[in-house]
Automatic annotation (TrEMBL):
Keywords: Hydrolase. One of its GO terms (molecular function) is serine-type endopeptidase activity. InterPro entries: 6-blade_b-propeller_TolB-like, AB_hydrolase_fold, Peptidase_S9_cat. Residues 407-610 form the Peptidase S9 prolyl oligopeptidase catalytic domain. It comes from the Bacteria. The keyword Hydrolase applies. This is S9 family peptidase. The lineage of its organism: Bacteria, Bacillati, Actinomycetota, Actinomycetes, Micromonosporales.
């Protein structure tokens, strides 16, 4: 009798995936007894409600092609508003559905138009009006519209052109805040609109360049909350007077305030502060002026902050580097934390996961570049993947990135370094603005300096350094492999990254053109500079094996951006693997697609970076 040899189990990416994913949209029912959120239990993101008292869930939608992007609860509590698009095309439409379930009702029906509900609270306090925006009049202009549910009529309250978003209704329902996004995502004006046909009134100086993220109104209607960096390096929390536009500061940390929520009774104010990527929750009683004692959050990042009408409960979505995104309820009365979900990796053991170390490395101009360094178990030497976030106006955070992808690589002996190169959010407006009209400039130098930093670490194999990124991060990957080819990269993975800045700028959605011109450049006036910075111009220098992942319906980085770089590399015989997902847009929203893409990317990287 032969004894069977025991073959060790080798974990795959699917073992590290979470059992459920949530989008960063949460809403508490008006009576405080339920929450609404979006998860992908059926493989696609759909709308769910959960009773807080019993934990019972009700699945309200079951789309297989559409993706629910956002949810809000009608003040009467009987039904919900949600936004959904089709196969990632981002042409979101508005729907209503009964809280008890049933067939969704379309409130808009223009498949080629992008609609969006108010960035704050879309419903007027009496529930009669819905504030939203869309480019249905002119593809290049985003109007602000108000749907009168009682008369089934639409009013246009702003038609001034550009990108303008409704914010929040005043307590009496007579006024609506508007945010006009100008040349960049961090250049805003604030207006007040009414429903009487009058022109909206501006509350901020036209010549100022500052962020103004709109928050809820104060209960007495004298003003509203804003998160702004006017006159500051970081975004603080203030109230804005509804008549004069004057600011009264409530919190001015040397970090960014990211989210704010106020209870319907106007008493309990809570807000998030991003401290080196980690979320801190703060609170204040606006009646007494006293700070509210808020329990410390787990060491990670949180989004989707919302508070119940009576101010007792706070709900948010939170993740750490070793724990997937879950929904967390905070009872402010008792200072207790209660997880409303308990999503874990499918089979991987979190006890084996590795925490990152927050490090800073020197750039050539003297700046210190922050980043999260994940070291695999063992003495080394180990290969390392540099993971570059998208945006570029985003920030690498200490969360369960790419649904466990980092931990999967670590389990296979591959380290991960996730830097926040110049252009990243979270480190002040000067730092984030450095990348504007300089894609492939100082940011690329920061990545070269990252390689030098890694090669100086004793546990890292200098010949096994790869690079991966999505969207802008994909552009950075292609730039590294082409313009920094002398660094002898071991491999690269590009997820829907642009390869040609001229064709990217020309293909941008009409409402984005001013943004693209300010952040990337004008495809006509700046064509020479943009082509000099485009990876496709330097494609003949790429030698490293490359994997490219692309959504066929991507409206932000069209498929052509990946096609042209793949064609150039294949014509030279460079190893390139190309995967196109016909039912995806900008990102991988379907669970099966995400699992396939990251499993294949992981195998590709482990082959080239592993032992």
């Amino acid at each position: 009798m032969h004894r069977l040899s025991r073959i060790p189990y080798v974990p795959g990416y699917r073992d590290f995936q979470s059992g459920l994913r949530f989008l960063p949209t949460l809403a508490i029912a008006p009576d405080g007894d339920a929450i609404a959120y979006v998860d992908d239990a059926n493989g696609q993101f759909n709308l769910v409600t959960q009773a807080l008292s019993t934990g019972d869930t009700r699945r309200l939608t079951a789309g297989t092609d559409s993706t629910v992007r956002r949810v809000a609860w009608h003040p009467g509590g009987e039904w919900l508003l949600y936004l959904a698009d089709d196969s990632g095309d981002e042409n979101t439409q508005l729907y209503r559905i009964d809280a008890a379930g049933g067939i969704p009702v379309r409130l808009t029906d223009a498949p080629d138009v992008q609609y969006s509900a108010a960035l704050g609270e879309p419903f007027s306090p009496d529930g009669r009006f819905i504030a939203y925006c869309g480019n249905d009049r002119d593809p290049a202009d985003q109007d602000v519209l108000v749907l009168d549910l009682s008369a089934d009529e639409v009013r246009r309250v702003y038609t001034g052109g550009g990108r303008v978003y409704p914010g929040h209704w005043s307590p009496d329902g007579s006024r609506l805040t508007l945010a006009q996004w100008r040349t960049t995502n961090s250049d805003h004006l604030v207006h007040l609109a009414t429903l009487d046909g009058a022109e909206p009134r501006s509350l901020t100086p036209y010549d100022d360049v500052a962020t103004y993220w709109l928050g809820p109104w104060l209960r007495d209607g004298s003003g509203f909350l804003v998160m702004s960096n006017v006159g500051r390096e970081f975004t603080g929390l203030a109230t804005m007077d509804a008549e004069s536009g004057a600011l009264t500061w409530l919190d001015t940390p040397d970090w960014d305030v990211e989210e704010v929520a106020l209870s319907a009774d106007g008493r309990v104010l809570v807000w998030n502060v991003n401290v080196d990527g980690f979320t801190q929750l703060r609170g204040r009683d606006l009646v007494t002026g006293a700070d509210i004692r808020v329990p410390e959050l787990p060491a990670g990042a949180a989004t989707g902050l919302t508070v119940s009408g009576d101010g007792r409960f706070v709900v948010l979505r939170l993740s750490t580097a070793t724990r997937p995104w879950n929904i967390l309820l905070i009872d402010l009365t008792y200072g207790e934390l209660r997880w409303l979900s308990n999503v874990r990796p499918v089979t991987a053991d979190p006890a084996t996961f590795r925490e990152p170390t927050l490090v800073r490395y020197p750039a050539q101009d003297g700046r210190q570049i922050p980043g999260y360094l994940y070291r695999p178990e063992g003495p080394g030497p180990a290969g390392v993947l540099i993971s570059i976030h998208g945006g570029p106006a985003w920030q690498e955070l200490p969360v369960y990135m790419h649904d466990g992808f980092y931990q999967y690589l670590l389990a296979h002996g591959v380290g991960v370094f996730a830097p926040n190169v110049r252009g990243s959010l979270g480190y002040g407006r000067t730092y984030s603005d450095l990348v504007n009209r300089d894609w492939g400039g100082g940011d690329l130098t920061d990545l070269a300096d990252a390689v030098a930093y890694l090669r100086a670490q004793e546990w890292i194999d200098p010949d096994r350094i790869g690079v991966m990124g999505a969207s802008y991060g994909g552009f950075a990957v292609l730039s590294c492999l082409s313009r920094l080819s002398e660094l002898n990269w071991a491999a690269g993975v590009d997820l829907y990254g642009p390869s040609n800045l001229v064709t990217l700028a020309k293909a941008s959605p009409p409402t984005w053109r001013s943004l693209v011109a300010a952040v990337i450049g004008d495809p006509e006036a700046d064509a020479d500079r943009l082509m000099a910075r485009s990876p496709v111009t330097h494609a003949d220098r790429i030698r490293a094996p490359l994997m490219v992942i692309q959504g066929a319906n991507d409206p932000r980085v069209p498929r052509q951006e990946s096609d042209q770089i793949v064609e150039r590399l294949r014509s030279r015989g460079v190893e390139v693997r190309y995967e196109v997902f016909p039912d995806e847009g900008h990102g991988l929203l379907r669970r099966d697609n995400q699992a396939r893409a990251f499993a294949n990317a992981g195998e590709f990287l482990i082959k080239h970076l592993g032992d």
